C-alpha cells in the first residue's frame, strides 16, 4: 500500500478520522500540536527515499505513545522516528513480529491496529494478542480485514 491508499482509508474511516493526523515519511512526522489522543502512520524511510515499511504511532498523551511495528523492530531503524519517540516518558511497543518477511502487508497491519485502537480502545498489547490468538495467519487476517471492512464499503 502506498501513502495515498493508507491516507484515504484512515481519513475516511469513521473510527479513525477524528484522531488520524496523516501518513508521513520519517523525517516529516509532525510535532505534537493536536489534542490527545491522535494517531499517524509513518514510513521508516525519509522523504528522499522510496519508502520501505509502514509503522503506526498512537499518541495517548504528552507522556505516553504506542509504537506499532509489524516486524517488531526495536529500536526503530529510523533516527527520525527514534527521536520522536524519545519525547515520551512511556513508549508502548510490540515485541512480537506479526508480519512475514516475505510479505508486503505492513500497510494493512497499521490500518488494522489503528482501527482497533481508535474504535475499541484496545491497548497495543490487546491488539497484538488478538492477532496472535486467531487461527488465521496474521498477514491473511489483516488483509481480509482491510478487504472486507474497508474496500467492500462496510463500516469498521
TrEMBL record:
Stored InterPro entries: Papain-like_cys_pep_sf (IPR038765)
Domain of life: Eukaryota
Protein's name in the database: ULP_PROTEASE domain-containing protein
Organism name: Globodera pallida
Taxonomic classification: Eukaryota, Metazoa, Ecdysozoa, Nematoda, Chromadorea
Amino acid at each position: 500500500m502506498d501513502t495515498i491508499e493508507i491516507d484515504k482509508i484512515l481519513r475516511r474511516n469513521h473510527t479513525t478520522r477524528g484522531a488520524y493526523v496523516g501518513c508521513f515519511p520519517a523525517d516529516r512526522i509532525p510535532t505534537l500540536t493536536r489534542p490527545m489522543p491522535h494517531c499517524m502512520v509513518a514510513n521508516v524511510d525519509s522523504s528522499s527515499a522510496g519508502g520501505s515499511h509502514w509503522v503506526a504511532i498512537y499518541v495517548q498523551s504528552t507522556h505516553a505513545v504506542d509504537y506499532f511495528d509489524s516486524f517488531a523492530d526495536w529500536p526503530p531503524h529510523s533516527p527520525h522516528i527514534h527521536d520522536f519517540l524519545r519525547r515520551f516518558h512511556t513508549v508502548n511497543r510490540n515485541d512480537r513480529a506479526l508480519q512475514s518477511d516475505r510479505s508486503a502487508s505492513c500497510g494493512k497491519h497499521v490500518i488494522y491496529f489503528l482501527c482497533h485502537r481508535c474504535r475499541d480502545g484496545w491497548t497495543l498489547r490487546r491488539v497484538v494478542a488478538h492477532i496472535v490468538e486467531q487461527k488465521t495467519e496474521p498477514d491473511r487476517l489483516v488483509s481480509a480485514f482491510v478487504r472486507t471492512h474497508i474496500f467492500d464499503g462496510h463500516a469498521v
